[in-house]
Q: What sequence folds into this?
């Protein structure tokens, strides 16, 4: 029986990791940690630990790890929006406390979910590999990069054993309402309800590497079962498509045949980072695995949820 300690288990990606653990065939035990109870049923002999991770102390985390005695720890905790201070508290300061706690509590393998926002501005039409110089353009990207650096340093010093999965643009059930697909779903539902012939979105010219959240979760579990040779691994499909193409695909799933009108100036991040595509050579080499879920399938699950 494998025991997983999942931090942020009730969030967007945390819920998908939870589901992946439920689907695993080794009679897993899950210790799910977060402020809210998990949205998904826990496996037998599993438990939910209510804890505000942003406010947790190093001692709290040591007690949690030692009491759980996990075979693997997966950190899905974090936030994508908020003030710079709020983002730093959970995305960076919490990770620093987690690393300290892991130094004190013994050798538990850590899988940490990072973000492609850490890369920031990169040369266009070139797949981004993990050795690329990082130039994050948002408070979110800067907070995630700082956490990655803390984890990589502790790993290189031999203090902990960890792998950072640098996740590109995940889509799936539970996607945040302020994400591209979250906004598109809101517009499409209003249009279908009110028989509108068009929806309005911000600029959709940016290209992104979209990947099913289910596949991100599968990659996280696969890392816990292997000995990886690289501290940072991209998780994406290795294919960039325009944001407009993604919204059109979602509209097709929704059965909407009206227009999609782009208005406004868009976010500074989209303007600065117009094109992102993951180089997934490390993913294939370390995990002997590739994402398999078609985007249309991930969008259909999201729409019907």
A:
């Amino acid at each position: 029986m494998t025991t997983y300690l999942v931090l942020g288990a009730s969030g967007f990606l945390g819920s998908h990791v939870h589901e992946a653990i439920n689907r695993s065939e080794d009679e897993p035990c899950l210790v799910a940690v977060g402020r809210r109870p998990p949205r998904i049923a826990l496996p037998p002999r599993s438990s939910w630990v209510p804890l505000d991770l942003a406010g947790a102390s190093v001692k709290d985390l040591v007690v949690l790890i030692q009491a759980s005695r996990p075979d693997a720890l997966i950190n899905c905790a974090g936030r994508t929006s908020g003030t710079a201070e709020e983002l730093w508290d959970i995305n960076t300061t919490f990770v620093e406390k987690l690393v300290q706690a892991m130094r004190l509590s013994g050798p538990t393998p850590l899988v940490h979910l990072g973000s492609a926002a850490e890369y920031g501005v990169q040369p266009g039409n070139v797949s981004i590999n993990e050795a690329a110089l990082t130039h994050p353009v948002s408070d979110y990207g800067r907070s995630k990069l700082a956490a990655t650096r803390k984890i990589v340093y502790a790993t290189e010093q031999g203090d902990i054993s960890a792998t950072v999965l640098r996740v590109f643009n995940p889509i799936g059930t539970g996607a945040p309402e302020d994400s591209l697909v979250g906004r598109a779903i809101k517009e499409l539902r209003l249009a279908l309800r009110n028989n509108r012939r068009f929806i309005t979105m911000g600029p959709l010219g940016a290209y992104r590497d979209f990947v099913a959240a289910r596949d991100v979760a599968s990659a996280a579990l696969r890392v816990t079962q292997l000995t990886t040779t690289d501290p940072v691994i991209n998780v994406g499909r290795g294919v960039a498509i325009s944001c407009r193409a993604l919204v059109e695909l979602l509209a097709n799933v929704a059965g909407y045949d009206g227009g999609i009108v782009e208005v406004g100036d868009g976010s500074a991040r989209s303007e600065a980072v117009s094109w992102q595509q993951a180089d997934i050579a490390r993913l294939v080499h370390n995990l002997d695995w590739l994402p398999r879920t078609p985007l249309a399938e991930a969008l259909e699950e999201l729409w019907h949820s």
Remarks:
- The chain has ten helices and 13 strands.
